[in-house]
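Dear Dr. H.,

I hope your travels went smoothly. While you were away I took the liberty of generating a structure for the chain from your last submission, since the lab meeting agenda had it listed for discussion. I wanted you to have the full record in hand beforehand rather than looking at slides cold. The sequence, exactly as received, is reproduced here:
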Amino acid sequence: MSADHDRKPLPRAFFDRPVLEVAPDLLGRVLVRTTDDGPIEVRLTEVEAYAGRIDPGSHAYRGRTGRNAVMFGPPGHAYVYFTYGMWHCLNLVCDGEGTASGVLLRAGEVLAGHEHARRRRPKARGDSELAKGPARLATALGVDRALNGTDVCGDGEDVPLRILTGAPAPSDRVRNGPRTGVGGEGALHPWRYWITGDPSVSPYRAHQPRRRRARLDAGPTEV
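The corresponding predicted structure, in token form, is as follows:
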């Protein structure tokens, strides 16, 4: 695969597919976040799929609200939510308009812009921890609600968020299992996907009752 092809933005058709197809296919793709400081690039290593109204673990399970409205829109847009009163999480809307399916970006390897990510994540013990977990990933990239609804299929150096083709993860390195922190009827869906052996993948944690404060390394999960 040529370097030029690796740098090509993913088209909207990539996201206009069932969420269980899109989620594992995002592994190895490159997320580019353009900031005032400079670009930060992250190779995606861990994601989770959420299937809208048929998925008890999804924010959209009980229908459309002001918070989740972006999920019901066209595919290829960012859904950013704020949780536990302190952390943001970044998701990508997929499937057809109105289905409210999305993929939570759980972890990745920072490829470029390390200095910008470290400035936002000064407590990271190494580069593999800069975006290890959904809250850490969003923090390292400077993602907040201002980016909610952003079109990630745009092309150009000034686009705030875009997804490049990258190098898709080999199928023999992709694993799946239950989603982190999801309880109730959605607990057993094996819709978390990760690249096995990659140090940036976050540890699995089963659902725990909500506490007053959430730990950054655990991070929120339900989308």
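Two observations you may find useful: The chain has five helices and eight strands. Residues 214-222 have pLDDT under 50 and may be disordered.

With kind regards,
E. W.
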